[in-house]
Amino acid sequence: MPFDALACPDWLCRSPLPSLWQAWLPDDFILRAAVYTALALALITLLVMVHVLLLAEVSARRQRRRQRFNEAWRPYFALCSLSDDAPEHPPLARGQRFWFVMQWNRTQLQLRGAARERMNRALQALGLEAYVLGLLQGRVRSRLVGLTCLRYLAEPRHWDAVQPLVTNRSAIVSLAAAQTLVAMDASRAMQLLLPLATTRRDWAMPRLSSLCQQAGTQAVTAPILTVLVGAEPSVRQRLVGLLSWAEPRHAAPWSRARLDDGGTGEELQAALECLCELGDPRDRERIVRALRHEDPGVRLKAIGAFRQQARATDAEVLLPLLADRSWWVRQATADALAALPGATPERLERLLDQVTDRYGQDALRRAIAEMPA
């Protein structure tokens, strides 16, 4: 069958308009196909533009409704945070509950103490507690909004609903659930979370430190020591930084054992930081040995620990460290010399003659210049 017959049927070509259209099309098959392709692409582009415009209009209308909702409920939230008497509230449609919870979370972020408790009661009075628990079964966004709300409520009765999310494959969801559990019961949460952290490599150390800070030293001490004693070396090296959130007097035996028996640089630094907080004179010899460790990070921590219990006659112990190859160690040593009991600029000037390293001399001169007059 000829291409012209396919391009324009007889019944269509008899009319004047199709005849004009057929006359305008090129005779070459490839060129005619290119024209049809261009027209199809133009039509698709037009449809996409219309679709985008429709989506923009729908989004703008939704944003306006959201803004009107926030403006209507903002006075209610303000009154709830200030008064124990529940004020009258605008009507809350079923489809607006998610907006309500999001605005409630933002308001709670700015409140503390009794005001936050009053807001909790307002949420419960509206019967939205069950809806918030239902958000935990939704997508990531819904789960995060629900977990944030439950963290502000901090009700231990919600523990069973939140705990399964700690093992969620999404690090964001699991850490949000962990934060919520800590708000509910810090001691119970850390007994669950710190052992779990040994297998969750996707939990970043800053987030774990934030959890420990939120839980407090009393809740962190026993679980972190249990983990450090029983964990493999690679896991212990990763989590040993959390020892700084434990009670120094309880962490001291582990720290002394590490300094006596040896350990990685990270473990020794954590141990020295613990002994620095404790300030026990019985640890002096351990700290002095650490001043000669091959790891500059260990030497730096040892200087900080030694500085807490240094005596006026300890200048001879610190002077060799002014020739250390680490810039940080030299600067910390100079500061420690300037902080010795009875140190004066005149005494430190006399020590300059005993320093052979010119970089160490520069560090000590800097410390002398920064001493108060």
Shape, per Cα inertia axes: extended
Global mean pLDDT = 88
Proportion in β-strands? under 5%
The span between the termini is: 106 Å
For the largest beta-sheet, the strand count, sense and barrel status come to: none
How many strand elements?
0
Count helical runs: 22
Query: What radius of gyration results from the CA coordinates?
Result: 35 Å
SSE order in H/E notation? HHHHHHHHHHHHHHHHHHHHHH
Given as residue ranges, the uncertain stretches (5+ residues, pLDDT < 50) are: 1-6
Task: Give the % helix.
Answer: over 70%
The computed structural class is mainly alpha
Task: Please describe what this structure looks like.
- It is a single chain.
- This protein has 373 residues and is mainly alpha-helical.
- Among the domains are: 99 residues, no CATH class; 95 residues, Alpha Horseshoe (Leucine-rich Repeat Variant); 64 residues, no CATH class.
- 71% of the residues lie in helices and 0% in strands.
- The chain has 22 helices and no strands.
- α10 runs antiparallel to α11.
- The termini are far apart.
- The N terminus is likely disordered.
